[in-house]
Amino acid sequence: MLAITADAEGRAVRDRRPVPVGLVAALLALLALFGARLAHAEDGYELWLRYHALPAAQAATYRDHASQLLAGDATPTQQAIRQELLRGLGGLLGKAPPLEDTVTRDGAIVVGTPASSPLVARLKLDTAGLGHDGYLIRSVVIDGHPGTVIAGQDDVGVLYGVFHFLRLLQTEQPIAQLDLRQSTRMKLRLLDHWDNLDGHVERGYAGASIWDWQKLPDWLDPRYTDYARTNASIGINGTVLNNVNAQPAILTPLYLDKVKALAGVFRPYGIRVYLSVRFSAPIEVGGLKTADPLDPQVRRWWRDKADEIYRLIPDFGGFLVKANSEGQPGPQDYGRSHADGANMLADALAPHGGIVMWRAFVYSQTNVDDRAKQAYAEFKPLDGAFRDNVLLQVKNGPIDFQPREPFNPLFGAMPRTPLMMEFQVTKEYLGFATHLVYLGPLFEETLAADTMARGKGSTVAKVVDGELDGHALTGMAGVANIGADRDWCGSDFDQANWYAYGRLAWDPTLSSRAIAEEWTRMTFGNDEAFVKPVVDMMMLSREAVVDYMTPLGLHHLMGHGHHYGPEPWDASGPRADWTPVYYHRADKQGIGFDRSSTGSNAVAQYAPPVAAQFDDVRRVPDAYLLWFHHLPWTYRMRSGHTLWDELVTHYTRGVDDVKKMRETWGRLDGHIDAERYRKAAVFLAIQQKEAQWWRDASIAYFQSLNGLPLPAGYPAPEHPLAYYQALRFPYVPGHGP
Ligand code: BDP
């Protein structure tokens, strides 16, 4: 029988010794169980900022370096810094060091800027080069005593430094001789919420929106503060509150007052608010007859609206716009270009220092050309036509957040325009909340991809962080996976994707494995026997989902509209480029989308060396094979297999990898709390079931076209094709109201 007791720090601990028989012993065990539960219900709410007590010996070492705390509280940010340090050190070390004004002993922690702290000023640190949000953490001698200083040029840098310092403790790193210096080139590090004003989250799998619009502006849910703390801990400095499919009401005084209240909560944490705006708002909210960007009345309306917003929110960030895409209104409705539209809004915001993030996710119902080519075709000619305060927000790949896509050819192709990366953190196409898919490797793969646009080494990361073409206005956006669920993201492992996104937005050259390890330690603890296998499992998970959903460059094979589960056979309306058959083009002879120079020629949108590689069927990486080429089922792969056999192998490997992940997790029972352990275990079982479904449905369908046998030893799908085709899923989350 399994016994659950509490260890020295009061955490739930399980051991496999038998529970002693007898009434008293049983009651004691029960008491311990509930006591531990009450003290630390591990429901995932604390995310990676758990600050639970460290092992006694480790805490004792750290206490020598945390004997007193010198931290001002003159500004709201300084107050937030103080609170975080007291909370973090108090939790990790069992007791927070006393707050004092002078250094009187060894082991002081001094935090501040040269302007906020005379002590920091006296140390004459080189904070000026850190930039607005950079920081340094250094072991120094202060008034004759060894201690630690956490300093920045501005308060917000100090805040980031404090979170970094706490992370060192959480991950049990040495802190006796620190000399860390961090700054970022990425100016905007944003979360985009696809939240509607009625609380529904488009492509959200973690419950309703966290913004309780009805109770705002008066009730400020403490969750908003935790949201801000958590984001600040990874350097996120902006949030777009509402869906890109924007409701015009967000621009009415009623809602702007609520936005102002949220901005007030976030401000101390260095987070600005932004809004998605509907291009036709001058008609819907302003009562005008047109939203033509060249119409003087329309221009005046937006200027007045911007003035109104900035009166309420002086540090408002700016607008995010989805225009002339998927039915959204836009400048083309009036025969104007995307640049005309973006520039009009940019002009309205410019006097206040605001920016426009104009989305490049644009493709048209009437354009019959390959959808993968359309954004490039639309925007490349506009390079240099945008105002200085406009960024073009470009999805990582040319289609739409698939498990794997080659990098978007716009990266590197518009040197005179700042391009902002848009990643999807919510897993719309990667199994929703229950599939354990760590997105770090996907983000890293895109950022490290070499566009070759300005010669070798022109990575997507360098395009986005401005280094390649000398842009100062730079940014990254992540479509948030956050909702009102207690664990924020719908699953504990999905928290890692929020974390990884933030860390890479700060430094796009970080390794996804290192990030996974950091996150695992902070989220679950430093038990080495747990950390290593879990990080291995996370690192395997992205390739697994590619294999069981869309191997060898296949893409967009999911269920219509809701995007849950496989539907490769779907050829229904309303438009061809929303159907899987448009993308896989499979028939009796072969499979794949011919985007080579003899096909749609999408390859030509890449820089010549990349184009040549993708164009050549012998040189294109297997991972992109069917993205760029249509090939016979009997095509001989590098492995020696036929294409069909190779596909089946990949589908099967994807399922096997999920089995491996489950086995790994199965061996880890007892290493962490029972609550989070069990939830992940059940989710992995769901994932295995659904991976099998993806494999079997896909194989059954493609086999119905090619009539080929499965390679020896590979089991046939569990059900006939008709079974999979008959499945229906009404009310799938994240889709429809
Ligand atoms: C697709 C989503 C859709 C979004 C759209 C977008 O399915 O819900 O509105 O992207 O990014 O991935 O605008």
Describe the fold and architecture:
The protein is of the alpha/beta class and 737 residues long. It has four domains: 3-40; 56-182, 2-Layer Sandwich (Chitobiase, domain 2), CATH 3.30.379.10; 188-524, Alpha-Beta Barrel (TIM Barrel), CATH 3.20.20.80; 547-593 and 630-725, Alpha-d-glucuronidase, C-terminal Domain (Alpha-Beta Complex), CATH 3.90.1330. The chain has helices spanning 23-39, 56-63, 76-93, 118-123, 155-170, 222-233, 253-266, 281-284, 296-312, 338-349, 371-379, 440-448, 460-464, 495-506, 512-524, 528-549, 580-584, 608-615, 625-628, 643-666, 674-706, 721-726, and strands spanning 3-6, 12-15, 68-71, 108-112, 135-142, 145-152, 179-182, 188-192, 238-240, 272-276, 318-321, 355-359, 390-395, 419-424, 475-479, 590-591, 631-632. The strands form four sheets. An eight-stranded parallel barrel has the order 8-9-10-11-12-13-14-15. It has a five-stranded mixed sheet with strand order 3-4-6-5-7. Helix 14 packs across helix 15 (512-524). The longest helix has 33 residues, at 674-706. It is globular. The relative contact order is 0.08. Residues 1-39 have low confidence and may be disordered. The protein binds beta-D-glucopyranuronic acid. The site of beta-D-glucopyranuronic acid has 10 residues, from loops.
